């Protein structure tokens, strides 16, 4: 099944253009709460209700980048399963919503389009997810890391995975070199944390 996830503001023509130019089986709209009672949204909902697969709506705070990013990421993850193909259209809604959707699409390796009068396919490595950029031990470490961890506390938490202290220290060094993890000396102990903004890697893994 081909799933079209599209951002939407108050101009349904952009979504209709995406619907007509990008073949799909199911439509998922990402909208703000203030859109739900508009005539354009209701027309789209009625139009899709006549088809075999009803439209799904994801509501976001269109002025909150983190909320938009988190919810678009969740929508992609929900539908990007083995039997489906997800395509993303970012031509509708606020700039914040479009930027967040672009980042979520990029990190999940799905096809991204900007559709209005023309169809513009954005450069993304299809299927290249953020998880593919890290080794398995690095992925486990990122998922396990909590604010103000020390190396001993992280080693203890990762004990059940079979990653020993030497491996933890090696992966921390590599992730620090990549700018993902920060290290600071505090009262004689090295404290670990995500560098600013990099905590989003944890959500994408």
Question: What is the gist of this entry?
Answer:
The protein is of the alpha/beta class and 205 residues long. The chain has helices at residues 12-21, 39-49, 65-79, 95-108, 136-144, 151-157, 165-177, 200-204, and strands at 2-7, 26-32, 56-60, 85-89, 111-115, 119-121, 149-150, 181-186, 189-194.
Name its key features.
single chain, 205 residues, alpha/beta, 3-stranded antiparallel sheet, 8 helices, 9 strands, elongated
Strand content: 15-25%
- The Rg value, from CA coordinates, equals 20 Å
The end-to-end distance, rounded to whole angstroms, is 24 Å
User: How many strands appear in the DSSP assignment?
Assistant: 9
Taking strands numbered 1, 2, ... along the chain, how are they ordered across the largest sheet? 3-2-1-4-5-6
Mean pLDDT: 89
Structural class assignment: alpha/beta
Q: What does the largest sheet look like?
A: 6 strands, mixed
Helix content: 40-55%
